[in-house]
Amino acid sequence: MRVDIWSDVVCPFCYVGKARFDKALAGFGGRDDVEVVYHSFELDPSWPPGQTMPTMEMLATKYNLSPADAEAAEGRVAAMAEAEGLGFKPDRVLGNTFDLHRVLHLAHDQGFQHRLLDAIYQAYFGQAADVFDPDVLAGLAEGAGLDPEDVHQVLDSDDYTADVRQDEEQARQLGISGVPFFVLDGRLGVSGAQSGDVFAEALRRAAAG
């Protein structure tokens, strides 16, 4: 069985959803026969490349929230993450994620996609690292098993641009407007950071055919 997952690396619900899905998959009897592939989805593809903004400032600006309301909203997501044993720091910055998705495609081709995605999530949400910095990203990729020179080569070129666009076009064709979004066995869709029980049941249903 194959599970296709659309997500963005700055999406806290994707971060939480991955942890919940991973736990459900670990307890699934047929886990060794499940292939999991992550696909690109940009929450804000119009974000200017090379520019970053503090997350709290973005929340206040985009949703017209007071600083206190923005802090409360972030606190609710933090509680979800911490309940899954995940680190979560509010002093992150947001930026354009297109290049990160291109590097994740490189990692997929080399067999390190899951390790790199975990590394990016842990660094970004757990440590508030600036994953938009090419050197930071290359360092995370190296820790996940990639050659940092390969990462810089991708970042300095248009490599994997078509792959990211293809993922996004497929998401549009499937009607995916928010992430995380899980497609099990090409036919069963699950939207959002659902509970582990929901993911476990979806795995059972997909395996049953």
Please characterize this protein's 3D structure.
This protein is of the alpha+beta class and 209 residues long. The chain has one domain: Glutaredoxin (3-Layer(aba) Sandwich). It has 9 helices and 6 strands; from the N terminus they run E-H-E-E-H-H-E-H-H-H-H-H-E-E-H. It has helices spanning 12-26, 55-62, 67-83, 98-110, 113-127, 134-143, 148-155, 161-174, 196-208, and strands at residues 2-7, 35-40, 53-54, 93-94, 181-184, 188-191. The strands form 2 sheets. It has a 4-stranded mixed beta sheet with strand order 2-1-5-6, with helices on both faces. The chain has a two-stranded antiparallel ribbon with strand order 3-4. Strand 1 (2-7), helix 1 (12-26) and strand 2 form a beta-alpha-beta unit. Helix 4 crosses helix 7, helix 5 packs across helix 6 (134-143) and helix 6 packs antiparallel against helix 7 (148-155). The longest helix is centred in the middle third of the chain and has 17 residues, at 67-83. It is globular.
Quick recap:
With 209 residues, this protein is an alpha+beta fold. It contains 9 helices and 6 strands, in the order E-H-E-E-H-H-E-H-H-H-H-H-E-E-H. The strands form 2 sheets. Strands 2-1-5-6 form a 4-stranded mixed β-sheet, sandwiched between helices. A two-stranded antiparallel sheet has the order 3-4.
